[in-house]
Amino acid sequence: MRRAYFIICFAIILFLSCSSTHKEQDDKISAINNFYKAVLAMKNDGIPEKTDIEKLSPLISISFKSLLQEARKAEDRYYHKKKGEVPPLIEGSLFYSLFEGADKVTSVTQEINTDKISYLIELEYRDRYGKKEKIRWQDRAVLVMENNRWVVNDLERLGKWPFGAKGKLSDTLKNVIEAKTD
Known about the structure:
By secondary structure, the protein is an alpha+beta fold. Helix content is 42%, strand content 24%.
């Protein structure tokens, strides 16, 4: 009798454990999907405007938001200093490897890392001009838990073509903030 009770209790604990792990995984993927849904809706190139940063605010970490805000200020200072006569510090789509941006997310796959929670994001862009070909690539989204919810903390642009944006978005934003714009 004790043995049957033990087995039933063990099965319940195992079921509850698996259930919470599944919900946490769903929460992470939902955080990524919500972030990309918001970013895909943005049609401005370069560093987002203040209103767009506020729209992203519930979906990104405090440090990511701060970097976007500081980079926006640096871009505005540069624009006023140069009287709008030169290109912005960042041209093209900020959030993707591809200059033109993306049209959709095709899949989200968890990476097994010990040092960070990250997902490979399969993205697609359909050329509306020229050959009308589809371009597909992967970027990486890094998540953190803040205020009891998963949020995007950084992006890594992984495109393998020449002239594509590469590396951590946080590093790009720090470079904009620290740029000497004399």
